[in-house]
Amino acid sequence: MEEERTIEYKLPRTIAEQGWIGVTIPRVYGGMGMGHLAKTIIIEELSRVSAAMGAMVQASQLGVAKVIHFGSAQQKRHWLPRFASGESLPTIAVTDPVSGGHVLGMAGTARRDDNGDYILNGRKWFVGNSHIGDVHGVVLRTGEGSRGLSAFLVESDRPGFHLGDAGTYGGLHGFSFGELLFEDCRVPAANLLGEEGQGLDVAYSSSVLYGRPNLTAVALGIHQAVVQDTVRFCKNRVLYGKPMTDMPTINLKLGEMQSRLMTAQLTAYHAAHQLDTGQPCDAELMNAKLVNTEYALESARDAMHILAGRGLQISHSIERYLRDTLHLFPQPAPPTSNAYDSARSPPAATADSGRHASTTNARPDNRPTRPRPTCPNEREA
Ligand SMILES: Cc1cc2nc3c(=O)[nH]c(=O)nc-3n(C[C@H](O)[C@H](O)[C@H](O)COP(=O)(O)OP(=O)(O)OC[C@H]3O[C@@H](n4cnc5c(N)ncnc54)[C@H](O)[C@@H]3O)c2cc1C
């Protein structure tokens, strides 16, 4: 997978069939109902071995989130058991090539026709699980302004839906994050996710509530691998007749790496726990993502210094850890950015930031709301 640089189709299915995509899915739908902390540990452990497969599980979780938080009773009954068992893999497709992380600037459209169906047109890229997904959660423009986006479920065999370029990337080899094309793709109104106009909420619930802790977990897993491999290398590499671990300067660097890893892990677990228990945690989620991605990168660079020429040898994986970590930075512009200004709607104020216990109902001032966190044993309403 790493050497061939091709999309891995079989391994994601095998992983999904273990039931791990179902970690945040309520038990009533066949999931584990264990929440964000357990999800963090699953993604971390997978990413320790393969960041590409950790990324696949994190992308699947984004797809799961939209159905848990915005799906109708029928959509939940249909899709959640399939995600939990690994029968179907979901995606969330928000980013388009022109607007990028400026979600409200997207060009793709969904127009309602006389039959009440929606006709979808647009192009999405950088979509996690793009070429292996069975159902895509696509956000498109149905009207003006910040309430003019809507989300739809699009099955991968639906006429008018096509796979585009798979993309060629420097890292996460094996992970599929390519292009999806919608050309007069007709979907019934029953495929609308949430209400018309809730597309921005769907997009941000994925990137904020799930995306941040998920990418944090991938970074944490890579960081674990960096420290583990570097310590092992230093124990085995003999210089001046002694293992490198006997050299004080090397030991100091290893200690710094270990310290960074422990701090990073604490921030990740703490933020996920806050999210699970419905406590304010915007700052914790952001900090955990920042600390984990920056520290993983710093430790990978230290590892490269320690291994010197050997760090560049593919067999030692350090160059892979460095490349893979760089893929964890891009995120959509946050709700407080000028994305809102340009849509002539009030900015998402910080008044409720972090209070993820809010409901998905529209707020009186029409600002976007966020779904409350997963309740492990949630019963179908
Ligand atoms: C591994 C990976 C997986 C991904 N998975 C998904 C997925 O599953 N679904 C999906 O829809 N997308 C996904 N993405 C896309 C990701 O969300 C985008 O890369 C991200 O939104 C940024 O968009 P962009 O890369 O086009 O950058 P651009 O939007 O072109 O941004 C370019 C630069 O401008 C800066 N910028 C943009 N807006 C502002 C602002 N308001 N203020 C200040 N600076 C700003 C950005 O920070 C950046 O530095 C994925 C990306 C990667 C790398």
TrEMBL record:
Task: Keywords in alphabetical order, please.
Answer: FAD, Flavoprotein, Oxidoreductase
Positions of the Acyl-CoA oxidase/dehydrogenase middle domain: 92-185
Tell me where in this chain the Acyl-CoA dehydrogenase/oxidase C-terminal domain is found: 197-326
Which Pfam families does the record match to this protein? Acyl-CoA_dh_1, Acyl-CoA_dh_M, Acyl-CoA_dh_N
The chain positions of domain Acyl-CoA dehydrogenase/oxidase N-terminal read 2-87
Where is the segment annotated Disordered?
329-381
Record GO terms (molecular function): acyl-CoA dehydrogenase activity; flavin adenine dinucleotide binding
Task: Give the required cofactors.
Answer: FAD
Q: Which InterPro entries match?
A: Acyl-CoA_Oxase/DH_mid-dom (IPR006091), Acyl-CoA_Oxase/DH_mid-dom_sf (IPR046373), AcylCo_DH-like_C (IPR036250), AcylCo_DH/oxidase_C (IPR009075), AcylCoA_DH/ox_N (IPR013786), AcylCoA_DH/ox_N_sf (IPR037069), AcylCoA_DH/oxidase_NM_dom_sf (IPR009100)
Q: Sorted alphabetically, which PANTHER family does this protein's record hold?
A: ACYL-COA DEHYDROGENASE (PTHR43884), ISOVALERYL-COA DEHYDROGENASE, MITOCHONDRIAL-RELATED (PTHR43884:SF12)
Q: Which family does it belong to?
A: Belongs to the acyl-CoA dehydrogenase family.
Q: What is this protein called?
A: Alkylation response protein AidB-like acyl-CoA dehydrogenase
